[in-house]
Design a protein that fits this description.
The complex is a heterodimer. Helices cover about 55% and strands about 5% of the residues of chain A. Chain A is built from 7 helices and 2 strands, in the order E-E-H-H-H-H-H-H-H. In chain A, a hairpin with a 2-residue loop joins strand 1 and strand 2. In chain A, helix 2 runs antiparallel to helix 4, helix 2 packs parallel to helix 5 and helix 5 packs across helix 6. By secondary structure, chain B is of the alpha+beta class. A 4-stranded mixed β-sheet of chain B has the order 2-1-3-4, with helices on one face. In chain B, helix 1 runs parallel beside helix 3, helix 4 packs antiparallel against helix 6 and helix 4 packs parallel to helix 7. The longest helix of chain B is centred in the middle third of the chain and has 26 residues. Chain B is globular. Classes of the chains: A mainly alpha, B alpha+beta.
Chain lengths: ~160, ~220
């Protein structure tokens, strides 16, 4: 697929972030990233897919290249705000402390990086108070900090935390 | 309160709706269909009524067991977990990973880049080449992946969620005149799946909202 991420694990290579996460969940089940209840699981997947299919692909690097430099910013902003409009509404009925209830789930793993992209493309987050609140709250957790783009081996010096 | 039948909000030509129609047919789940015309009246998915039901303003959406689920793969995984036979995901976690990887490649990597609202933004002049680029680029990757996963179908010899994603995407490839010669495995599998009843009853040419000129 010529894309990241890819995970080489247990003798296989898996592409597509959500396929990787679901495999990790099935083979290393604790702590859980998907609730036990099928309806809540559906909400987690719906939110994850909204981001992973409905927003991110429309503003990823290769699409923005095709759109061209002039239009890149407004294109990315449009993709993100359009998706966040829908997401903010959905979160009204699913969110507790986090995207779905009060436990961290796969949906939260999708949310934080997408909010970082929103910041990067200067999307005003004022219309999305639930998205903002949840993202800020998740960023206080260690797993979200150690994995942050500003703390990676390949983070350029000027972006390093 | 007696639960009614599930209600599927669908558009005949939406490849994402087709995936769910196939799943419902394979699992012999009886349901009602409410059609949402994505073109008429500026797009019925933008009505207040539909937005309240599905804030994503997209089809498919499935009202089932007291909840409403959007996103075709989230719907299919819910059906799999609550109506587990026949299975749409293998038992083995590694094969499940392959099924999900292929499904996501199509559902995140190809379809969103050539859906109606993106093509509108790209503009009429560039639409065809844009759609072709999205599809061939994704099919190049998929054809390679299938070399190691495919048997009779996308992953081994049982129909899976990956196959539900494949057939509608191949239909889109045909619609946008993508040459399928470079993708023999994709073609073979798609043709084979189309002989199955669930893929036929759910076909865009046989839906309540199929226009007369496209009806089979």
């Amino acid at each position: 697929m010529k894309q990241v991420p890819a995970l080489k694990i247990d003798g296989i290579t898996i592409g597509q972030s959500l396929a990787i996460i679901e495999y990790l969940e099935e083979t290393r089940p604790t702590p859980r990233l998907l609730p036990q209840d099928p309806k809540k699981r559906a909400h987690v997947r719906m939110i994850s897919d909204l981001i992973a299919s409905g927003i991110q692909p429309l503003q990823n690097l290769s699409v923005l290249k095709q759109v061209g430099q002039e239009k890149q910013l407004s294109w990315a902003q449009q993709a993100i705000s359009s998706g966040f409009n829908a997401l903010e509404r959905i979160l009204q009925s699913t969110a507790g402390k986090y995207c779905v209830g009060d436990e961290v789930s796969m949906a939260d793993l999708c949310l934080v990086p997408q909010v970082a992209n929103a910041d990067r493309y200067k999307v005003d987050l004022t219309p999305y108070p639930t998205i903002s609140r949840i993202s800020k709250s998740l960023l206080t957790l260690e797993a979200f900090q150690v994995s942050h783009p500003c703390r990676q081996p390949d983070t350029p010096p000027e972006l390093r935390a | 309160m007696q639960a009614g039948k599930p209600i599927l909000y669908s558009y005949f030509r939406s490849s994402c709706s087709w995936r769910v129609r196939i799943a419902l047919a394979l699992k012999s789940i009886d349901y009602e269909m409410v059609t949402v015309n994505l073109i008429k009246d500026g797009g019925q998915q933008f009505s207040e009524e539909f937005q309240a039901l599905n804030p994503m303003k997209q089809v498919p959406a499935l009202k089932i067991d007291g909840i409403t689920i959007g996103q075709s793969l989230a719907i299919i995984e819910y059906l799999e977990e609550t109506r587990p036979t026949p299975r749409l995901l293998p038992q083995d976690p590694k094969k499940r990973a392959h099924v999900r990887m292929i499904s996501d490649l199509i559902a995140s990597g190809i379809q969103p880049l050539q859906n109606l609202s993106v093509l509108k933004q790209v503009g009429q002049e560039k639409q065809l080449s844009w759609a072709q680029q999205a599809i061939s680029s994704g099919f190049n990757a998929l054809e390679r992946i299938l070399q190691s996963t495919a048997g009779k179908y996308c992953v081994g010899d049982e129909v899976s969620m990956a196959d539900l994603c494949l057939v509608p995407q191949v239909a889109n490839a045909d619609r946008y005149k993508v040459d399928l010669t470079p993708y023999p495995t994709i073609s073979r599998i798609s043709k084979s799946l189309l002989t199955l009843e669930a893929f036929q009853v759910s076909h865009p040419c046989r839906q309540p909202d199929t226009p007369p000129e496209l009806r089979a």
